[in-house]
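[09:14] KT: can someone run the structure on this one? pasting the chain below
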Amino acid sequence: MDIRRSKSMMRQGVIVAMAIGVLAACNRQEPPVAAQDTETTAAADQATGDAHADPEAAPASEPAKPAGFDLESVPVSDRALGAFPFITLPDGYEAINEQTLSLARVPFWTGDRLEDVEGKAYLATIQERSGHTYSDLELERNIQHVVEQAGGVMVTDSAIAPEVLEGVSRDVRKNLVDGWGDVYNNPVQTYVIRNADKTVWLHLCSDSAGAGLIIVEARAFEPTASLLPADALKREIDTHGKVAMQVNFAVDKADILPGSMPQIEQVANLLNGDPALKLSINGHTDATGDAAHNQALSEARARSVVAALIARGIDGSRLQAQGLGQSEPVADNATEGGRAKNRRVELVRI
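[09:31] RB: done, structure tokens below
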């Protein structure tokens, strides 16, 4: 082999070696991943997953949201509760502005919603007695102890969500003012005691100056009104000059409940059957709460009955509305049954 041919072969070998080295170096670098490569990889992964998936399996659903408060989760206590409202305040504290309502609807905060509870209700504002220093922590701990001794549980100790408070009507806020406390700036403690024959809800909202307390003994609504047909109404008015009916209204309002509308229809039938008859619609309340408030409420309820009769075609000149408040009881206001009888509407011939 001559020298020129040998040198030429050596140059070719060097070039090949350099090319191999460059290619190797390029292969060691990680090129940026293009969008197309990502989509291709995802598609491949999807295909692989589909190949192993059950073709009849339903698509995965979203995770279930945590369940809210469930009354059935509260254990049933066998401990005697005593007389309503079931608890006594700790030493050094007293209740003012107390109210006891034979039937009320109260919204209780459960931590995730307001739960409307119907039943006998006790509302009060709690303050310290003279000579005692108020402590919201002392009051809260004592109430918690009493509830736990009765076999109850705390449902929540938290602030009512602002958007929930915005949905509470002005009427509800007004009716609960003495027992609800400053729920707009302070947390609420809600407790439940479940017995075999009753469920008791307790609301406490305390601040540095006092507290609101509400206790409700929940129970199913037991109607006290019974339908008196037009002929029975006429017999009573012909004999006694008046007749009493237990028309049901919304709690502390003048709104006639739908269940009492058939009774209003019978009064309209009575008036249509005797065109000469004129009636005074007299509203009465029990003695619960302020007398002036009860007077105004009885007047408003009497006007509601008159308006309902006019809406059914009765000439308004044949009717008048009068409220007598709690001034003319027909039964003992110290008993629940007596108070129910005192909450009535009377038709009086004029």
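[09:33] KT: thanks! Confidence is low (pLDDT under 50) at residues 1-66.
[09:34] RB: yep, looked fine to me
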